[in-house]
Amino acid sequence: MNYYSTNKQTPATGLHEAVVKGLAPDKGLYMPEVIKQLPREFFEHLEELSFQEIAYKVADAFFGEDVPAETLRRIVYDTLSFDVPAVKVKENIYSLELFHGPTLAFKDVGARFMARLLGYFIKQEGKRRVNVLVATSGDTGSAVANGFLGVEGIHVYVLYPKGKVSEIQEKQFTTLGRNITALEVDGVFDDCQALVKSAFMDEKLNTHMKLTSANSINVARFLPQAFYYFYAYAQMKKLGKADNLVICVPSGNFGNITAGLFGKRMGLPVKRFIAANNRNDIFYQYLQTGIYAPKASVATIANAMDVGDPSNFARIFDLYKGSHAAVKEEISGATYNDEQIRETVRTVYNETGYLLDPHGACGYRALEEELCPGETGVFLETAHPAKFRDTVESIIGDSIEIPAKLQAFMEGTKQSIPISKDFESFKAFLMKE
Length: 433
Ligand SMILES: *Cc1c(COP(=O)(O)O)cnc(C)c1O
Fold this sequence. Notes:
The protein is α/β, with parallel strands linked by helices. It is built from 20 helices and 14 strands.
């Protein structure tokens, strides 16, 4: 299948190139030329299938033309080595727990799938090692590093700002070794991002080594996120709760919710979506006014949603052909400040015993406020609360249990290479690799 750019200034290209490039040459985001409808019978018996079986059918609709069936099946089954259960929080509100993967956040799904698909393409090329550069403020680095760990033919360099990520986050990408190198940059996140961008532009460096990015706008990270919307529906159908399904997504760059909107285009019977924002409510304001006005982000306790110019807005705009009315028909919005997020985590914990993380709390609250009679709501619980331990413990005034998986990272030994934020020294380092 071909992929076109949302900016429409470059010709469409195949999956292989879209995955290796990430961003289109005209700086647009790649979109599949066709979003295939899945047959009605598929939905009628969805609850009889496993998560992996469902995901394979969805993956086949997107990638089946470009990847042999057995390879694609293996990639999907390897990627989804963990469950995504829908857990009841209270009457008609369910939490889709996306935190059972290796780094306890939903980004594991896209990162693991992309690592395997890229690994397959590289093996086909059969030549030089490919080097993935990724700048991170915390969560992306851990998902990408763990997703690519041990994938043959690929080496990952994670650039992160010294002293600016939590200890738990740092341990998740500095303790792995093997094909993962952590570079501790004496600077802030923007410096890390600038180093990566300069590296992609540097001719000499690109002749010396093959570079690519594992950015979240990559179609191989983005599309697999559709899998778990279908599985959520299957679980609700099993409970007899699939009619009038409302799905609420705590959103930052809007990749996650956009994958859900693709699912709906494929025929998934979701009645409507809610995008929950923190104070960075550019999308919420767009819904109210029809004007998309990006601005600088502000820091909140749901920090993975601190985005002032959501990159996947371009995909939503393209999907609805720029029609504000069409967007509003399928998606409504909500926005919460830190105080409201805290209050939600505290109240839900006290009343139901269910512990939300600050991002999931935005999703839960929007359902509680917006759900109409007869509707069932599912919100995406995008990360495990223990990833935000200090925040969550201070809200509930109690210590929380740290999952064994997270504990295991904490016991590893940090290995990272300190570098300055100066590009020439970064380049000199890579030239020796
Ligand atoms: C990345 C992230 C989000 C935001 O997802 P988008 O796809 O960027 O909208 C929400 N919650 C958590 C925990 C995240 O890591």
